[in-house]
């Protein structure tokens, strides 16, 4: 696996970044749904 080659100190940082990306995607989806509801 790739994770074995990555130093342990970088892994939490990657997790934090992916978490931010996932959260922003979720927020984007929620905002998109809101926009669709209002536009009807």
Tell me what the structure shows:
With 40 residues, this protein is an all-alpha fold. It contains one helix and no strands. It has one helix at residues 10-39. The longest helix is centred in the middle third of the chain and has 30 residues, at 10-39. It starts with 9 loop residues before the first helix and ends with a helix. The model has no long low-confidence stretch (mean pLDDT 80).
Task: Record keyword descriptors for this entry.
mainly alpha; 1 helix; single chain; 40 residues
Brief write-up:
The chain is mainly alpha-helical.
How many strand segments? Answer: 0
Low-confidence stretches: none
The description of the largest β-sheet is:
none
What value does the average pLDDT take?
A: 80
Reading the helices and strands in chain order gives H
Give the DSSP E fraction (strand runs of 2 or more residues).
under 5%
Counting helices, strands and paired strands, the structural category is: mainly alpha
- State the helicity in percent bands: over 70%
The radius of gyration over CA amounts to: 16 Å
- Quote the distance from N terminus to C terminus: 48 Å
What is the count of helical runs? 1
- Coarse shape: rod-shaped
